[in-house]
Amino acid sequence: MRALVWIIEDTWEATVAEAAAFLPSDADVTLLHVASTEAETVAGAARRGLLGRHQPPRAAPALREISEQAAHELLAEAQTRLGRPARLEARRGRVEHVVVAAAAPMDILVLARDGDRERLGPRSLGPTARFVVDHAPCCVLLIWPDVAPALTTIPPPPAPGAPQPRPSAL
Amino acid sequence: MTNGLALALALVVLAATLGVAVARPPYLSEALAAVAGAVLLVTVGAIGLSEAGDALRALGPTVGFLAAMLLIADGCRREGLFDAMGAVMARGSQGSPQRLLAFVFVIAAAITAVLSLDATIVLLTPVVFATAAQMRTSAKPHVYACAHLANSASLLLPVSNLTNLLAFHASKLSFLRFAALMVLPTLAAVGVEWVVFRRFFAVDLRRPRRAGTRPARPKLPRFAVAVLALTLAGFALSSVLGIQPVWFATAGAAAMTIPSLYRRAATPGQLARAAEPGFLIFVLGLGVIVQAASGNGLDTAVRAALPTGGSLPALLAIAALSAIFANLVNNLPATLMLVPVAAAAGPGPVLATLIGVNVGPNLTYVGSLATLLWRRVLHAEETDVELGEFLRLGALTVPAGLVAATVILWLALKA
C-alpha cells in the first residue's frame, strides 16, 4: 500500500500519530510538506514596487532558503515522530494543486482538517483541504487534529411544526 | 522647439525611463536611462541648461538626505537591529499568530516611520518571514502587513518616504510641525489597516497558539539605537537650533558608518553600494525629466486638475487624485509633478498629496498599474499568487485609509 501523509505546520503531530496508528506496518509511506509560495511572491512584489532600487543586502538569506530550511526541519521531526522509514518530500507551489498531483500514484492520502473546528460544519475544512478532498485521485483518511467530537455536538432535530430551515448555501 | 512638442518629447522620455525602471533589462540600468533621457531633453532644448541645473540644485539636498538615511538603515542592519526585532516578535508573540500580527504592525510602522519604507520592505520583511517560519505559522498575513504598512505608515516623518522628503522642502514646514500634523493621520491609516487585516486574515490568524521553547531574550544593538535616537532628536530640534535636518542625517550616517570602517565590519565598497548611487542618480535624472515636462505645460494641466484651498472636499479630492496618479505611474514621478503645484496652495494640499501618493500604492499589486500590467504581460513568477486577493485587500484598505487620514489631517490643520 502506498500512503501519502500530507502534513501542515499546525496539525502535523496529530496527523503523523494517526498515520502511524492506522497505516499497516508494511505500508510504503511518503511524508509530504508543501510550502506555499504566496508570501514570497507578495514580498517580491513589494520590492519591485520600489522603483529604481535593487540591491538586496548580501547578509539577508533569500526567503526561499528560509522556507526550505523550515520545511526540512518539520519533515525530519515528523519522521522521528512516525517511528518508521518514510520518504520525505518537500515541495513548493500552490498547495492544493501540488498535494493532489502528489497523491496521483498513491492508494491512500492522510490529511487533517484545516478549518474552523469550533463550529462543526462545512467550514471545518478550509479551502485548501476542501479542494484536496474533492479532487484527491485516491481514497482519503481525514483525521481530527484534536479529539474527535462527541455525538452530542449534533444539533437536535427541529421540533414538529417548527419552521423548516432553508438549505444553506456553501 | 514649440512647447507642445517639447512636452510630448518629455512625456515620451519619462515613459521610457519608467519603462526601463519597471522592466529592468539586464543591459540598461534605470540610472543610465534617466541620465540619457535628461541629457537628450537638454540637447534638443526641451529644457534649458540653467533650468536643468536649478532642478538638480533643488533636488541635491533631498538626494543627500536620502543617501544619509539609506546609510543609517544599512548600519542598523549591520549592527543587528532587524534581527533583534525578529527576536522581539518571536518572544512577544508567545506562539500566537494574532499577537505576532500585532507585533509586526507596531514594529513595521515604527521602522517605516524612522528608517523609511525601503527599510521595512528590504530589511524587515525577510526577518518577519523567518520569524513566522520559526513559529510554524502562515507568513502570509505578516508579509502582507509589512507590504501595506511600508506605505501607510510612511506618512509620519519627512524621512519615512522619499515622497515626503521631496515634499518637505516645498512645504516650508519644520520637521516637528510636519510630524505633528501627520501623527494622527498616520495612526488613522494604520488603524484602518489593522481593522481590515484582522477580518481579512481571520482564518489564518485563528490557528491555535502553539506552545514551544521560549525564544532567547533579544539583544538590542545599543549603539545603533542610540545613534537613531540622537538623529531623531536632532531632527526634532532642527528648527529651534536653526540647523537643517539634513545635517543631522549626515552626522547620523557618519556615526553609523565610520566606526564600522574602523572596525573593518564594512568595506568602503559595501558602504558605497548601501547608499544606492544608481537610485540617487535615477532620482536626479527623473527630476530633470519631470521638470522638462512641467516647464512646458504639464504644470498648467496639473494646476487645472488639482483643487486648491484647504477645505475638506478640496483635501479629499487632492488625496484621491494623487492616489490615482501614483497608481497610474508610480508615486515617485507623481510626487515630482504634483508637489510643486500643491505647494503653492500651502501645507494642507502638500500633506494631502502625500497621503494620496503614500497610501495609494497599496491599491495595486506592485505600486503602480504600469508595473502590474508589465508583470502580467511577462507572466512572471507571480502566476501562482492570488492576484485577486492582493487587489481585494487594497480595495478594502486604501479608500478607507485615504478618507480617514485626510479627514484627520483637515482637523489637525484647523487645530
Q: How would you write the strand order of the largest sheet of chain A?
A: 3-2-1-4-5
Mean pLDDT score of chain B: 89
Taken as a percent bin, the fraction of beta residues of chain B is: under 5%
Overall CATH architecture of chain A: 3-Layer(aba) Sandwich
Helix content class of chain A: 25-40%
Uncertain regions spanning at least 5 consecutive residues of chain B: none
What is the mean pLDDT of chain A? Answer: 86
Name the helix and strand elements of chain B from N-terminus to C-terminus, one letter apiece.
HHHHHHHHHHHHHHHHHHH
Assess the beta-strand content of chain A as a share of residues: 15-25%
* The first-level CATH class name of chain A: Alpha Beta
Uncertain stretches of 5 or more adjacent residues of chain A: none
SS summary, helix count of chain A: 5
Q: What number of domains of chain A? A: 1
Would you tell me the structural class of the helices and strands of chain B?
Answer: mainly alpha
Secondary-structure element series of chain A: EHEHHEHEHE
Name the overall outline of chain A. Answer: globular
CA distance, first residue to last residue of chain B: 49 Å
Please tell me how large the radius of gyration of chain B is. 21 Å
SS element count, helices of chain B = 19
CATH homologous superfamily caption of chain A? HUPs
Principal-axis shape of chain B: globular
